[in-house]
Amino acid sequence: MTSPPSKLDTFALAKLLKRGTSEHKGNAGKALLIGGAPGMAGALLLAGNACLYLGAGWTILEMLDPASAKACPESPELMIRLASAQIDEVLEITKPDVIAIGPGLGKSALASILLMGVLQYPSIPLVIDADALNLISESKDLLSALQNRNQQFPDQVVLTPHPGEAAKLLGIATENVQSDRLATLEKLITLTQCIVVLKGQHTLFGSPKHPALQCQEGNPGMGTGGMGDVLTGSIAAIAAQGVRHQLNLWESTGIAIQLHATAADSLVRQGVGPIGLTPSETILEMRSLLNKLL
Ligand SMILES: NC(=O)C1=CN([C@@H]2O[C@H](COP(=O)(O)OP(=O)(O)OC[C@H]3O[C@@H](n4cnc5c(N)ncnc54)[C@H](OP(=O)(O)O)[C@@H]3O)[C@@H](O)[C@H]2O)[C@@H](O)CC1
Ligand SMILES: Nc1ncnc2c1ncn2[C@@H]1O[C@H](COP(=O)(O)OP(=O)(O)O)[C@@H](O)[C@H]1O
User: What's the gap in Å between 274 CA and the centre of ligand 2?
Assistant: First the structure.
């Protein structure tokens, strides 16, 4: 019989994010986030705000929606650019420390080109979410590119599917994902050789090298569109800082998962939700909790 997963318990590690007095934005890392097709620009802005408020040195958004690819007055710190098919050039010039792709990405031809470009960019941590996962589930070429990258650069890609996206990746029904979440996690790891975060109540987290862990925080108030986008941006922020703060992608992801769910619980305790709890409020609570952990 399979043993139950251990509890995700990362908060002691978060102390590694404490800043030395001489540190500058270069020490906090550069995160590049890709997504935000027409009608879903908000998904990329939420991921971007999470990345900004969780401490990345630079947060750069490659936005697919031309109408939204401009400075955001509510978050002028975000560097927002129009995504172009010349992704190799963009990556060469930008030299990001971490890339996240997927929030509101859509499934256009441009979205596929961007995802392939990211998968072929070597060595740095990648966070793959939402429509980027759906694209991989529909393309053998993208799945092969992901598997090849993991062979060359192990432990540098994290996938963050919710049960619907996990079902598509495995070609099964969502009910089958939910009826044995641990088995689903293991199948996703075997298929992709990635670090995998299977979201939902009691998020599961595992990798080819690490046995599964379970997040015991979180609540149904988190069931609001955009909450997963916040997790993606948070992982990117912590991984970007982790590069110069001795945290690897596995550790950074664990901190982000637990911080996200704990922040939502904390807000519910304060009477902010569960009904009407927003992803934007969760970002601010995550910032507050993270600073208390240092
Ligand atoms: N402000 C914006 O711009 C926003 C833009 N967004 C962007 O929109 C794009 C498409 O995303 P989306 O939300 O429209 O649909 P999507 O996630 O593909 O599928 C939903 C289906 O999946 C399942 N399912 C999910 N969770 C489950 C669970 N815990 N437990 C069980 N099942 C679960 C469930 O399927 P069912 O079980 O009903 O068959 C559900 O109906 C994407 O790029 C995203 O980033 C969003 O982030 C929102 C804010
Ligand atoms: N009932 C629940 N209990 C705990 N966490 C939940 C619950 N429902 C949703 N979540 C969390 O909220 C987030 C939702 O992510 P996702 O479905 O990708 O949202 P979106 O695509 O709208 O951004 C995930 O982190 C998930 O674990």
Answer: 13
Which CATH topology does 24-293 take? UDP-N-acetylmuramoyl-L-alanine:D-glutamate ligase (3.40.1190)
Domain ranges of the chain: 24-293
Complex prediction ipTM: 0.95
Closest ligand 2 atom to Cα of 129: 18
Q: Binding site residues for AMP, as ranges?
A: 199-203, 228
Query: CA–CA distance from 1 to each of 4, 158, 183, 187 (Å)?
Result: 9, 27, 12, 17
**DSSP one-letter code for 202:** T
In angstroms, what is the span from residue 89 Cα to ligand 2's centroid? 34
Q: For residue 200, which atom of ligand 1 is closest to its CA?
A: 29
Strand, helix or coil at 101? strand
Return the exposure string of 63-82: e unless at least 16 CB atoms fall within 10 Å of the residue's CB, then b. Answer: bbbeebbeebeeeeebebee
pLDDT in tens, 67-107: 999 999 999 999 999 999 999 999 999 999 999 999 999 99
Classify the phi-psi angles of 103: left when phi > 0, otherwise alpha if psi is within -120 to 50, otherwise beta.
beta
> CB of 174 within 8 A of CB of 139?
no
Q: Which percentage of the chain shows pLDDT scores above 70?
A: 99
Q: Provide the CA 193 distance to its chain's centre, in angstroms.
A: 17
pTM over 0.95: yes
pLDDT tens sequence across 253-285 = 999 999 999 999 999 999 999 999 999 999 999
Task: Fill in the DSSP letter of residue 294.
Answer: -
